Amino acid sequence: MANGEIGKTVVLVAHGSGMAAYDALWRERVLKHLGEEFPRVRFHMGVLNGELEAWEAFPKDVRGGWAVMPLVLSDGVVTRVQLPSALSEYGRRLGCVPDVEMLPLPGVRTELDGAVRRVLEGWRERGGAECGRKGVLVIQHGSMRHPVRSGEAMARRWAGVYPEYGGFYAGYLSQEPGMDAVLAEIPEKEVVVVNWFLNCGNHVIEGIPSMLGLKDVEVCGKDVFGWRNAGDKRIFYTTPVGESPEFMKAVTGVVRDWLAGSGGKV
Fold this sequence. Notes:
The protein has helices at about 20-35, 75-95, 110-120, 150-160, 180-185, 200-210, 245-260, and strands at about 10-15, 40-45, 65-70, 100, 135-140, 170, 190-195, 225-230, 235-240.
C-alpha cells in the first residue's frame, strides 16, 4: 500500500451459525460488500465455531498486524472467552503473535435501530390486525457464564420510541429469563419477534421456532417470515437483524471510523 494508507488486515470474526454452507454464503456476502466499499483495504473473515479449529479463523499473513472486528451483536462469551483463547492458540501454534487492534462491535451502532423499525412496521403489510396493541419480544442468545442485559436495555429504549405498541419484552436462549417463559407472560395476543441474531442459522430456523411452538417456518431469504400461530398467540416471526441492509451499514461504519481515526486513506 502507498504511504499514508492503512497496512493492517481487517479480520472479521463471527461465532458461526452452525450451518457451514450458510456461513460460507454469509462470508461471501460480507466480504463482497466491504471489498466494494474499501477496495484498498485487506479483509479476511473466519468463524470460531465451524469445521476448522477456532485459531484457524485468522489469516496466516500477519503483515502490518490486524484490526479485529468481532461480528457479534453483544459483548459476551465470544468477545471475552472464545476470541482471546483463539488468538492465544494462534500464537502458540504459529509461534508469532500479530499486532492486534480491536474494533468496536457493529451491534452497538444506531444503524441497527433501522432494522428494528422495519420489523415493527412490516407486520401491517403481512396481514397484521390493525386494531389491538402488539407485544414486542426481543430474543437474544445470552450466556449463563457471561449474562447480558442488552435485551432489556433495547426494550426500554424502543418502548419510548414506539409508544403505539404494547409492552416490549426481552427473552434469552441461554440465560434467564428464557424466551418461552417470557412469551407465556406477555398479555398481548399478537407478538412481534425481533430476532437479535446475525444470520439464519440453527437457532433462527429450528431452535427458536420449536421453542415458541411455531409451525412451518419458511427458510431465510425474505425480509420477514410472516405471521404464525403459537398456542393462544399470533406471532410475527422475522429474519434476524444481521440479514438487514442496516447491519451492513453498521459494519461499514465501524471500518470507516477506524480508517478516519488511524489517518488512513481509501
